[in-house]
Amino acid sequence: MLDAKGGAFPEMTLPVHWKVAPVMGSGRQYLSWISLQDLLQVMYFIIQTPSSSSVFNLVSPTPTTYKEFTDALKKRYTTWFTVPVPSFLLRIAMGEASQIITDGPLIHSQHLLESGYQFTDKTVDEFLHAVN
What we know:
Blueprint: E1 2-3, E2 6-7, H1 9-17, E3 20-24, H2 36-48, H3 66-76, E4 81-85, H4 87-94, H5 99-102, H6 110-114, H7 124-130
Parallel strand pairs: 3-4
Antiparallel strand pairs: 1-2
Helix pairs in contact: 3-7
């Protein structure tokens, strides 16, 4: 979940305040994300839609890799350089929790879209544009 004041976003953007844009692992793995605004609206949508008795993936409709996320951060914030953070360093620093970053699976929100939900933040760029 991404929110300007909470969730993982403040920690993920900390390096850009130092003008550094980190690329985690290979950068090709997927980052499953959803804005707090969409998360709350999706939960309300599901509650209000009794015909939706299925399982939904609460992720944005646009699959994003860590490299694409870093590129979006570089566009939104001024950075001086990009620093690759190898997977083995993530494993040393985070242990098994690093698998969340290094093995990011591709997760779709197709069923949610087919049920009629309209996302506010469809892309990382849209989310970053809305963040002050």
